[in-house]
Amino acid sequence: MDCHAAGAARNDDFSIAMTNPATPFTWPVRVYWEDTDAGGIVFYANYLKYFERARTEWLRALGLSQHELRQSTGGMFVVSEASLKYHRPARLDDELLVTAAVSEMGRSSFTMAQQVLLLSAPPTDPVLLCAGQVRIGWVDSATLKPARIPTFLLQTLQK
């Protein structure tokens, strides 16, 4: 499924960033009671959690464990900036697809373009619910000072 095409058809800064990656990583999420607020819609901060889960699973799909990276390199990833735009709410029992794709790569940080899409019938036409940019930095885990991402890790992330 070409998930980024659903967002690319909309004219906003966040979805346009998704047109660069050929195929973004996708992770399915189901909305549970714990995700919703008193109005029965997904609480706005939970979209950040969905983004985090997709990024973590993206790393796992690349064969990378954040825990093992920290132990073997002494470094770790941290979120340094996030910007989100909400388009429509998700509700209880909705089936969502969360995307993650590197949109910019540097020596000590990179930016992920991410989306939360509602899988509708037919699932070939997902609806954009939330789009965002999340900047991820690499830091020394002992001092939390910025550091360069190890070369082997940069090469893996660019795959």
Descriptive report:
This protein has 159 residues and is of the alpha+beta class. It has a single domain, classed as Hotdog Thioesterase (Thiol Ester Dehydrase, Chain A, Roll), CATH 3.10.129. The protein is 26% helix and 33% strand. The protein has five helices and five strands. The protein has helices at 3-8, 13-17, 46-61, 66-73, 151-157; strands at 25-30, 75-86, 95-105, 109-118, 127-140. A five-stranded antiparallel beta sheet has the order 1-3-4-5-2. β3 and β4 (109-118) form a beta hairpin. The longest helix has 16 residues, at 46-61.
Number of distinct helices: 5
- Give the H and E element order: HHEHHEEEEH
The portion of residues forming beta strands comes to 25-35%
Going by CATH, the homologous superfamily would be Hotdog Thioesterase
Q: Major β-sheet, in short? A: 5 strands, antiparallel
Lateral arrangement of strands in the main beta sheet = 1-3-4-5-2
Distance linking N and C termini: 19 Å
| Helical amount | 25-40%
Give the overall silhouette. Answer: elongated
CATH names the topology as Thiol Ester Dehydrase, Chain A
Going by helix content, strand content and strand pairing, the class is alpha+beta
Tally of domains: 1
